[in-house]
Structure formats: structure tokens, C-alpha cells
Amino acid sequence: MTTNIGKDGRALPEGLRERWRDESVGSVWRRPSDWYHPAVDGLAVAVLAGGDPAPAAWELGRARGEHGVGIGEALDDLVCLYRSTGRPTPPLDAVRALNEGWSDAQAALVTTGACVDPETGLPTQQYLAVRLAEAYLCAEQDDVDPAMLHRLVVVDVAAGHVSGLMRAARSAAVGAAMREAFGAGHPMATLGGGVFVALVRTDDDVDARVADLRADVARRCDDVEVRICVRQPARVWVEPLPETHSQAVQRLSHLARPEPWAGIPRPADPADDAQALGAALPPGLLTADLWPYGATGVREDPSRGADAPETDPGEQD
């Protein structure tokens, strides 16, 4: 395997990192814009040096957990790292360490979670989960299907990597549009990464509210600088509630994605520096049967409602 060597004689992780990123983004990773984190380099260095990968894997697991990446996606990404070096699976110590780091991050989020997001002024995902529990209790008391009483309105305005200032401006604009469309105190939340959700009643003239919301988002994000970091047009859709509260919370987790490693510069695009790619993977190494989601790398989401787009909105920046 070709590696890049620095002036001090130490192997640099760029070549491995870019092969790792290519394979992960091409098969299991949902949003290319938030794959990179400095912990990636730490683990790439450990693998190149043939040392103990556990400490670096723990750091990467914690970083993934803090930024809303699911444990399955994080583990699949780890597998991509080792397969990009010609090894079929990661060592057990690395898997265990990544799991432990991810779990520690999740525990910290539970104990420090706030009720309101400061950028948008909207409630957090945890708060909406509580309001969802109330909706399911209401449906149970009325002995009706929860989907008959409530729906989820989902807004995705993500458009690639966004700087901290532009992210704040975008979040404030969409948060104001959400409050204008549904009213202050209405059950809604920011899920991060330009994704927002509102819980609405089926008898609330949902179509009219969605149309007003889409128009208001476009108006508030019409500023030239803000507009370039907003999906054009903003994607808004409605989906019914799943059968159970736990499924609804899982759906929120699937939709959620915090902003791509806020404040951390992304590495150069591989196309900008051909030498960073290193050696190409051996032909036929990554065959379809090696991947948990088949040749396309697309996960099927049984919780996605009939009104949702065929592809996950987060995958088309």
C-alpha cells in the first residue's frame, strides 16, 4: 500500500484517509459533508503504524456519537477503513473501543441535553420526543391509530458544508419560518444539519401550512450569502406517524444529522490533490456481497412514510 511520508519520516494519513472516505461515502455513509473529523486522522495514523488502534477508535467513536451518527453507521465506517487496507474486518479491540466511545458520548448527551436550541429558538429533538409521547397517549385513550390524529412535517434545507456564521443565519431564518407557520409553543424541533420537524394534527389544514412554510423559508433565506447554503428549493414533506412511540423516536434519529463538524475545516477534495489518493484498491476487493446493504449501499427504511421522498433527503445535497 502506498503511503505519504513526511519530512520527519513518519507516515501521513492522507492517502489512506481519502480511500477510506471514498469507500465509506460510496457505500454506507449518509452525508459526505460530515464524514471528516480530526479523529479520522488519528485512527488512520494508528492503522498505518501498525500500533494499537483502540485509543484512536475510542476517540472516533466518541466524535461520531457527539455528532449524531448512529452506531451502525459508525461501525460500518470502521469496516470501510480496514477493507480499504485489504483487511476484511477490523480487530475486535478497535470495534469494542469505538462502541465504548460512542456510548460515552450518548450518555453525556442525555445528561446535558437542553430544551431549546439557541440558534433556531426551536425545541430540541429530546423535547419533541416527549411531546410525541403525549400524542401517542392521546391516540391510545381514543383507541385510534396515531397516524389518524397526527403527522410529521419535515423540512430539509441542507446544502453541503456550511460555515458557523452561515449555519446560524440559516437556522435562525428557518426557525422563524417554522414558528410563523405553526405558532410559538407548537410541538416542533431542530434535528441539526439543516433538518427540522413539526408535529401537526391531521385536521390542521396541513397542506396550506406546508405551502406557507415553504414560501416563508424561501423569503427569509433570500439573502445572497444565506441562500447559497440553503437547498434550492427547500425540501418539505409530510409523513404519518409510525405505529409506536419508539418507532417515532427512531424516525427522528434517522432524520437527524448535526452540522458537519462545526468549526473544523474539511480536508481537500481528492480531485484537488491526486497524490492524496494513494494507491487504488485492488480490483474486485469491494464486491457487492461484502457490504451490509448490497451493491448500492442504500439502506431501506421501513419507518419512512408513504408521503416521504423515495430517497432520503439528507443524501442529496
From TrEMBL:
Region entry Disordered, spans: 293-317
Superkingdom in the source lineage: Bacteria
Protein name: GGDEF domain-containing protein
Originating organism: Cellulomonas wangsupingiae
Lineage, broadest ranks: Bacteria, Bacillati, Actinomycetota, Actinomycetes, Micrococcales
